[in-house]
Amino acid sequence: MLFLLRAMLAGSMIGATVAGSVALAAADAMPNFSVEPSCRAAARNAAQPDYTAVCRNSEQKARDEVERQWPQLNAADKAQCVPTATAGGNPTYTELLTCLELAREVRQIHSKGQPTTTGQGVK
């Protein structure tokens, strides 16, 4: 029984390691999002039919910026931000770029030894 438990734990640890490696490997590749569904929804919410083109243009600029920065971005930030940007079902490069920029800024604050706060206790 103890042998079986150890084997199960070892197997789950190997599985977690492999899954983590797959996630990091996937984060190394620049994601390819279809922004059309998000842009159509934004145009409906804006009640401006031409907003779809404005959104596409904005998303192309965000994509270009992510692509420019991608090789220098922190692997852990990529591994966190790509799934975060895709969590809602209609990913956008604007969401991905924002997540990556915030992650970089938080890391810079931490590296300078500056505390981050949740806003609690501020009067």
Description:
The protein has 123 residues and is mostly helical. The protein has a domain at 31-111. 72% of the residues lie in helices and 0% in strands. It contains five helices and no strands. The longest helix has 27 residues, at 2-28. It starts with a helix and ends in a 12-residue tail after the last helix. Mean pLDDT is 78; it is low at 1-23.
For the residues shown, what is the average pLDDT? 78
Count of alpha and pi helical runs: 5
Please give the largest β-sheet. Answer: none
For the secondary structure, the number of strands is: 0
* Shape annotation: elongated
Question: Runs with pLDDT <50, length 5+?
Answer: 1-23
From the structure above, extract its key features.
123 residues, mainly alpha, 0% strand
What's the quick description here?
This protein is 72% helix and 0% strand. It has 123 residues and is mainly alpha-helical. The chain has a domain at 31-111.
Which SSEs are present, and which pair or pack?
Layout: H1 2-28, H2 36-46, H3 51-69, H4 75-86, H5 93-111
Helix pairs in contact: 1-4, 2-3, 3-5, 4-5
